[in-house]
Structure formats: structure tokens, C-alpha cells
Amino acid sequence: MMTGMEDARFGVAHLDRIALHYAEMGPEDGPLVILLHGFPDNCLGWRHQMPDLAKAGFRVIAPDQRGYGVSGKPKGVAAYDLDELAEDVIQLGKHFGEEKLRVVGHDWGASVAWWLCSTRAEAMEKAAMINAPHPAIWKREMYADPVQRKKSRYVKMFRLRGIPEWAMRRKNYSALIEALEGSAREGAFDRQEWAQYRKAWSEPKALTSMIHWYRALLKKELPKTPGKIGVPVLLIWGEKDEFADPGLAKKSIELCERGGTLFFAEGTHWVLREEAASINPMLVTFLRSDQDG
Q1: Nearest Cα to 270, choosing from 132, 66, 135, 111?
Q2: Which of 70, 149, 185, 212 is the most buried (most CB within 10 A)?
């Protein structure tokens, strides 16, 4: 077992709509926190956060989201629409007995958290987002802003059928591993993780399902100007992100009536790994139920 996950319990939540594999830590009677990973990650990407949140008394659930690992992989792009992804999280919360959710998301997981705050606010208590703008702002700026347009070129390539999957799979997933290592500070990823990642990516239909998240976003009609968000939000951002310009963070937090930011000048897209010693105490403080956000 990789460092940080020695105390994890693993299971499968059989929801009415889908089965989601998950990692769990912390007391079963603790306040629920759901951690949502991004692309091309999985639940093990939270190994730096889970022990500290569990030690603080939270019941921490980190699912492999739909399309990832051994979780369900429904057919078709429409199954990976933001509304579908958000409903999975709401149903997962209910599965663990919680109607009002505390959610922490990174990358695509943060996009889902933003969407929950915008469209299902009644189900949200708090949300922390790490290095992902609101999806409506992300989609708008990947066309409108020259800097973000350049950073998002890879997203538009995902429209192609079959080619992205082939490119990722060849040479034992070397392109994916190089992309992860190349976009992070040295040492952010441990070599022992690659076997776990390759195993997850090798699951039948996994790569196509993972890419369908992007394809669904590109097809979805999103508001050019999203409405105000009343849910308390903490936005954490590594400013050396190769995939998202810090300006998108500022435009996103401006949507929030109760929003705070935590910027790391030397942090990359993988700041949750690089700056865990600073980020984790902030998450604990923010997520405690007696905090008003």
C-alpha cells in the first residue's frame, strides 16, 4: 500500500444509478467529506489529504468517479454531462446518510463541485475547489482568452474519436505519465504510484470514459455569465498551472458571495500534493461545521 493510504478502507457504493468504488478513512460517525479527483487521477490522488482530514474527525470518502478505475462506465458522451456527474455526488452523499454535503474537488472534481454549487445549492454545505475554474468560465475563456486558449489546446483534441485513447495507451501509458510528471514539481509523484495508475487506466472502457468528460463539456450549453453562488467556497490555486490561467481563478471567485482564496506562487496544477502541509490545515478549518465559511 502506498504511503498515506495504509489506514484506508475500500468499498463499492451501489447507487441506483451507478456503482462507485471508493476509499474511506476516519470515524464512521464523523461529518462526511467527499473528495472528488480529476483527470487522469483516481481516489488514490487524495493520499496526502485523507489522513489529516480523518485525524481531524471527518469521515472521508474519495470515490473513483464514473468512468474511472473499476467504477461504472456507462456508454455514450451524454452519460458524462456535468448534471450526471453532480447527481452521482448527491446520491453518494445520501448513500452515506448525508443530505448536505461538504465537497473538496481537484481539477475535474472541482468542476463538479462548482456545478453542484451553481445548480444544486440546496444539497451543499461547503465546497473547496483546487485548481479548476467554474466550468462555464473555463469553457468561455478557452475560446475567448488567448492565454487560456493556448493552455486548453489539448481539450479540443479530445473531440477526435479514438485517437486520444490510442495516444494515451501507447508505450504503456508513457504520454499520460510524462504529462503528470511534466506538469508538477519534482517529487510530487512517487514512482511506486505508476503501477496503480496503469492498472486503473487499463480497465475496460476507462480511457474513453475519462475523455468523455471533456467531450460532454464541449457539447454542453453553459451560461456565458454564471449566476452568483451562495454556498461558502474556498478556492485553492497553484499559480504555475500549465492548464489554467490564474485569471480564471479570480473570475470564478468573483461569483461567490462567501468565497475565500489561497494562492501558491510556486504551486502547479498538482498543488494538493506539493503544498499539502499548508493546504490540509486550511481544509480542516474551512470544513468544520462550526465555521460559517
Answers
A1: 132
A2: 212
Q: Which residues contact 10 (CB under 8 A, 6 or more apart)?
A: 21, 22, 23, 24
Q: Report pLDDT digits (tens) over 229-269.
A: 999 999 999 999 999 999 999 999 999 999 999 999 999 99
Cβ-based burial of 162 (10 A; exposed 0-12, middle 13-18, buried ≥19) = exposed
Residue carrying the nine cell digits 472521508:
60
Alpha-carbon distance of 40 to 37, in angstroms, equals: 8
Grid cell for residue 12: 463499492
Classify domain 9-287 at the CATH class level. alpha beta
- Among residues of the chain, what percentage have pLDDT more than 90? 87
Q: What positions carry a catalytic annotation?
A: 107, 214, 269
Residue 83 in grid coordinates? 448534471
Q: Which three cell numbers stand for residue 59?
A: 469521515
293 has pLDDT over 50: no
Cα gap 45→276, rounded to integer Å: 12
Give tens-digit pLDDT for 102-147.
999 999 999 999 999 999 999 999 999 999 999 999 999 998 989 9
Domain locations along the chain: 9-287
CA distance linking residue 46 with residue 273, whole number of Å: 8
Q: How far apart are CA 69 and CA 79, in angstroms?
A: 16
Min mean pLDDT across 134-148, 200-214, 271-285 is at 134-148
* Crossing angle between the packed helical segments 206-219 and 82-95, to the nearest 10 degrees: 120
3-state SS assignment for residue 226: coil
Name the pairing type of β-strands 124-130 and 233-238: parallel
Residue 23 clears pLDDT 70, i.e. is over it: yes
* Residue 16 one-letter amino acid: D
Element (DSSP H or E) covering residue 55: helix 50-55
